[in-house]
Amino acid sequence: AARGVADRVARYDPRMELGGALAPELMAELGAAMAAGQVVVHYQPQVDVCSGRVVGAEALVRWQHPVHGLLGPNAFIPAAERTGQIRPLTRLVLDHALAECARWQADRPLSVSVNLSVRNLLDPAIVDDVRDALERHRLDPSLVELEITETSAMVDQARSATALRALAALGVTLSIDDYGTGYGSLAYLQELPVQRLKIDRSFVSDLRRSHASAAIVRSVVDLSQRLGLSVVAEGVEDDETLVLLRDMRCDLAQGFGLGRPVPADRLCDVVRRIDAH
Ligand code: C2E
Ligand code: CA
Ligand code: CA
Ligand code: CA
C-alpha cells in the first residue's frame, strides 16, 4: 500500500498537466483545501553517498483531493503561481516542513529542503515568510535548504539575486535544482550565494547506459568541487548508479532506489531502513 501511494502520484501527474478543463475548478478549491488540511507534505530522504546515511529530506507537496485522489505538485503548482496562491501555498509547506524538521532534531537529526517557485523569488515577502517560519519553529537556519531552479533564477536576475542574498543572510542553504536543464551561463554561480547543485534526474537516471550522461554528471560533480559547492544527484533508481556516483565523489543522492517520498509519519521507518542497509 505504501508503494501504491507514491506510484499513484507519479502516474497522476502527466494526466493532470494535460487536463486543462479540470484546472480552473480545482484552483478555486485550493484555498479551502489548504484550510481543510488537504494539502500535505511528503518527504524524500537525501543520502550521503559515502557513508550511506540519511542526512536530510526534501519536502514535496501533495493535494489529497476528496474526489481526484492524491495530486502531485505538477497538477496545481503552475496554476497556483498564475492565480496568486503560491505565497500561501509556500507558507504552508514551509510551516509543515520546518515543524517536522524541528521534531526530527530530538531523535535523528536531519536537514530539510523546501522548493521555491519563480513567483516566490520575485516577491520580497518570501524573506519574511522564511524568517517567520524559522522563528516559529525555533529552528537553526543551517538545517534548512531552499531549492530554486536554474530557470527561476534567470527570469529576473536582478530581482531574484536580491531575494537570494536576503535569504542567504538568514543562514539557510541555497541550492540550484534541476541543474543542467536550463540555458543559463555559469557566471551566475559566482554571483549568487548558492551552496549546492542538484543534478537533474534526466542525467542521473541514464548514468549507467549513456556515456554522454555520465560525462555530464562527472563534469557537474567536478565543477561543484572546484567551486566549493556540494552536489546532489537526483533520480537515483538503482544500486549500480549509486556505486558510479560514489566513484565520481558525488556528495549526496536522492531517488526512488533509495527511498520514495513518504508522509511525515513514515519517514522515520524509511530512514532507519536506509541507515541499516
Ligand atoms: P523536484 O524538485 O525536482 O522534485 C523531485 C521530483 O522527482 C519529485 O516529484 C519526486 O517524487 C521525483 N523523484 C524523486 N526521485 C525520483 C526517481 O528516482 N525517479 C523518478 N522518476 N522521479 C523521482 P514530485 O513530488 O511530483 O514533484 C515534482 C516537482 O514539483 C518538483 O520537482 C518541484 O519542482 C515541484 N514541487 C514539489 N513540491 C513543491 C513545493 O512545495 N513548492 C514548489 N514551488 N514546487 C514544488
Ligand atoms: Ca527540488
Ligand atoms: Ca529535486
Ligand atoms: Ca529536480
UniProtKB/TrEMBL annotation:
Name of protein: Diguanylate cyclase
Organism: Cellulomonas carbonis T26
Domain EAL: 23-275
Span of the entire protein shown here: 469 to 745 of 760
